[in-house]
Amino acid sequence: MKLLPYSLRPSAPQCPCHGHPWLAFLPEPRVRDNLIRVQERYDEDELCSDIQGFWNLSATDNMLIVWGKPSDPRNWEVTESFTRKLG
Questions:
Q1: pLDDT 10s digits, 43-59
Q2: Which of 19, 44, 56, 85 is the most exposed place for a label (fewest CB within 10 A)?
Q3: Which domain of life is it from (predicted)?
């Protein structure tokens, strides 16, 4: 774990929880923690699919945009469509 950048290390709530595996790639511990806390309120597979849209450069309605090194949370941008969908 010490080899991982701080932003990608599992948070305390993430370790004992059975959260969806894709949560591990999100570089912001608070976001991972919040998603684990409210996981019964959203469809994990649907959200995973929405987030993975940023890998598809031809997608016109991406949910997240990564402008640089993915392990740096400052490089991630949440789009308006992502904010609207999550309410």
A1: 888 888 777 765 666 66
A2: 56
A3: Eukaryota
